[in-house]
Amino acid sequence: MLDQIHWLAAVTVLGVLEQAYFFLQVIYARRLFGISPPKISGPPEFERIFRAQVNSSEYFPIFLVLLWQAGLFFHQGLAAALGLLYLCGRYCYFMGYKTSSSARLTPMYFSAGVLWILTAVSALSILHFFLSHYVGLNILQLLTA
Amino acid sequence: MLDQIHWLAAVTVLGVLEQAYFFLQVIYARRLFGISPPKISGPPEFERIFRAQVNSSEYFPIFLVLLWQAGLFFHQGLAAALGLLYLCGRYCYFMGYKTSSSARLTPMYFSAGVLWILTAVSALSILHFFLSHYVGLNILQLLTA
Amino acid sequence: MLDQIHWLAAVTVLGVLEQAYFFLQVIYARRLFGISPPKISGPPEFERIFRAQVNSSEYFPIFLVLLWQAGLFFHQGLAAALGLLYLCGRYCYFMGYKTSSSARLTPMYFSAGVLWILTAVSALSILHFFLSHYVGLNILQLLTA
């Protein structure tokens, strides 16, 4: 069973390390700008780093779910490759947001695009599974026949 | 293996689409009220939409975990049906919160109720697994005997 | 298959119950200090409880992912034991943060330490899987030979 998920698991660990990096960046920013918890407001420089981390955290479960479903129902390698693209996009988003609000936009659209592709792959491959499981209709086979 | 999880996967994709819809609503509200990131405070109308999205995001991983555990340890179809109820409850919660703080309460209690049922189903079916696995005690069999 | 994940599932349900407890604490604090949603700012006593819940929610998906990957790729019992330590640490963190910002630090470092151990266990056991799967190199066997 593990050989069906090891690439997904590897990308997931990379994702966890990326999240850890974002958390550490917020801790450094708190020290730099002298903003102790529980405070979350401060100069725009701090708030941008803070919001970049919060936004990445909110998307993390959604990313993982799509990565694993696309990997299990369609193709592990493709899902893992898209996962790596997403993690790169997230890194650029974080670094861009740190600089300015507008510099976050391009990598934000890129990451969102990758997520939409993963969503489409998941949804279509699950739909394909339903059709072949309940109706006996194998679309992939029909297309390649 | 996939035929044990395809209903759970389908409900999960619907959940992801719902979360995407909530994120888009926040983006529209930011434009409407002219509140650019990283700012998160503004008129109550904006803050209600923003909080509705944040609250839904915080509950999303908990929902997914309960959905999948109830589905794997008890019954996939029942878990998926409860999952659909939860997603409906969340939609009504979001739409209610958009109107007023008090209009979020009824669907909030409904969603929370569904989550508690999923928690009970997960906990009891895992307990049942432990009892039959380690003690050899099959309660379901005893009850139906 | 379920006997490979029942301890992970049991710890996960405990984690969900802990998160539910944290959510309830925020609801009680909102009533106590008279802070109705969507407001999230108030006296430091309220903000500490609120931030303790938000922080625990942000870490919850990361914790779950590491718990399950360490359990699947290395050892279920060890992962579940580390998971219990993490949940204890989180409880002390929440209770500490409720009292004062500084009282959260020791359990915060403890929880973070447990997460780093889970990360290392996950990463190394996945690396080990890759090595034995693709290179045919079984390090554990070499070490014990």
Key descriptive features of the protein:
Four Helix Bundle (Hemerythrin (Met), subunit A); homotrimer; 5 helices; 145 residues; mainly alpha
What is the strand and helix layout of this fold?
The structure is a homotrimer of 145-residue chains.
Chain A: H1 6-33, H2 44-73, H3 76-99, H4 105-135, H5 139-144
Can I get a quick summary?
By secondary structure, chain A is mostly helical. Chain A contains five helices and no strands. Chain A has one domain (2-118): Four Helix Bundle (Hemerythrin (Met), subunit A) (Up-down Bundle).
Question: What do these coordinates show?
Answer:
- The structure is a homotrimer of 145-residue chains.
- With 145 residues, chain A is mainly alpha-helical.
- Chain A has one domain (2-118): Membrane associated eicosanoid/glutathione metabolism-like domain (Four Helix Bundle (Hemerythrin (Met), subunit A)).
- Helices cover 82% and strands 0% of the residues of chain A.
- Chain A has 5 helices and no strands.
- Chain A has helices at residues 6-33, 44-73, 76-99, 105-135, 139-144.
- Chain A is elongated and about 65 Å long.
- The first copy, chain A, starts with 5 loop residues before the first helix and ends with a helix.
- The mean pLDDT of chain A is 96.
- Chains in contact: A-B, A-C, B-C.
- Chains A and B meet through helix 2 and helix 4 of A and helix 1 and helix 2 of B.
- Chains A, B, C: Its main location: endoplasmic reticulum.
- Chains A, B, C: Pfam families: MAPEG.
- Chains A, B, C: This is Leukotriene C4 synthase.
- Chains A, B, C: It is found in: Endoplasmic reticulum membrane; Nucleus membrane.
- Chains A, B, C: Keywords: Leukotriene biosynthesis, Membrane, Nucleus, Transmembrane, Transmembrane helix.
